[in-house]
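Q: I have 220 residues here and want to know how they pack in 3D. Can you give me a structure?
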Amino acid sequence: MRALRFKATRLAADRGVVTLSHHIRIVLLAVLSLAAVGAGMVALHARRQATTAPTPVVAPARPAPARPATTVAQPAVQAPATGAPAAVEHRTPAPVATPAPAPAPTAPSRSHGLALDPTLPPPVRQALEHSNEVVAFVYSPSSPTDLLALKQVREGAREAHVPLVLLNVGRNSLAAAVFRWTSSAVDPEVLVVRRPGKVAFTLPGMTDSTPVAQAATSAR
């Protein structure tokens, strides 16, 4: 009896183990099925998200606005009315530059139709323009002797009725003109001059009125 009870107990225990193993398999299969279903659902959800993801919209590039062509408005030309004379535009011609004439060669001075010596000092030339004969007195105002001689020369020219021309060689420009004319600049000196600038008599040094009057009268 004990043997049977032991076998029955062992048999019952084996059945329990078999039953437990069978339940474990069912649970494992259920877990694997759930895991497979879960993985499938995750994959399906991921595929749906990839399918339903919004496609980025690329806006088409806008073409640059075309620049309007620059046009220059031409003034309208009005046709002349029938029978009316056309207006003629008068244009003043541009001035033409005229070259300056070349300087003429030096010629004898002509005053009032007279051909005078171009080397004459200006005071003598001006006096000969109005008189055929002059008495020129070369002097220096800083010399007392020249001033005494001046009184005698003025008196002699007055007696001969001939104009008196004073040549003050104290002025450099006038001294140079006298030297260019007579090749000397001695003072005091009396020069009796006739047209066109010829020296008729020369009285150097100190003199009185009588020789001056005689020389002026003789030169006529």
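Q: Anything worth noting?
A: The radius of gyration is 72 Å. The helical segments are 2-52, 122-128, 144-160, 172-182, 209-218.
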